[in-house]
Specification:
This protein is mainly α and 131 residues long. 72% of the residues lie in helices and 4% in strands. Helix 1 packs antiparallel against helix 5, helix 3 packs antiparallel against helix 4 and helix 3 runs parallel beside helix 5. The longest helix has 25 residues. 34% of the residues are buried.
Length: 131
C-alpha cells in the first residue's frame, strides 16, 4: 500500500504540468491564449506553447503505466523522459525569448516548474521501487 501512495506522486506532477497550460503565465495570459494569438498572426514557433500540455499528457501516461503494472517500470521511465524532454525543449526555446517578461511571471510558470520537478522525482522513485 505504501508504494501505491508513492506512485501517485507522478500523477500529481503530470496534473500540475497539464493545469499550468491554462493558468496565467505572462501578463495574465495563459499559454493556450498565447498559442492562439501566435497561431493567428502566423508565428512559426507557436506550437511550442503547447509543449507543457503535451509533456503533462505523456508523463501522465508514463505514471499510469507504472501505477497499473509495476513490472513495466523501465517503460514508464522511458515515457516520462520523453515527456520531460518536450518540456526541456520548451524551456530552452521559449524562456530565453521571453526573458524580458521574467519579472512578470505568474502562477502558471511556477506550477509548470513544480510539475517538472515532481515528475523528475517520480522517475527516481520508480527506479528505486523494488517489486
Amino acid at each position: 500500500m505504501k508504494n501505491l501512495n508513492i506512485r501517485l506522486v507522478g500523477i500529481l506532477g503530470s496534473i500540475l504540468l497539464i493545469i499550468s497550460e491554462f493558468l496565467p503565465w505572462i501578463s495574465g495570459q495563459s499559454l493556450l491564449e498565447i498559442y492562439i494569438f501566435y497561431t493567428y498572426v502566423n508565428v512559426e514557433e507557436s506550437f511550442l506553447f503547447l509543449f507543457p500540455l503535451v509533456s503533462g499528457i505523456i508523463c501522465l501516461i508514463g505514471s499510469l503505466i507504472v501505477y497499473y503494472e509495476p513490472d513495466y517500470k523501465i517503460n514508464s521511465v522511458i515515457v516520462n523522459f520523453i515527456g520531460l524532454g518536450f518540456l526541456l525543449l520548451f524551456f530552452f526555446e521559449i524562456i530565453p525569448s521571453e526573458v524580458f517578461y521574467i519579472s512578470s511571471l505568474q502562477i502558471g510558470f511556477y506550477c509548470c516548474i513544480a510539475g517538472f520537478f515532481i515528475a523528475l522525482i517520480n522517475v527516481i522513485i520508480v527506479l528505486m521501487i523494488n517489486e
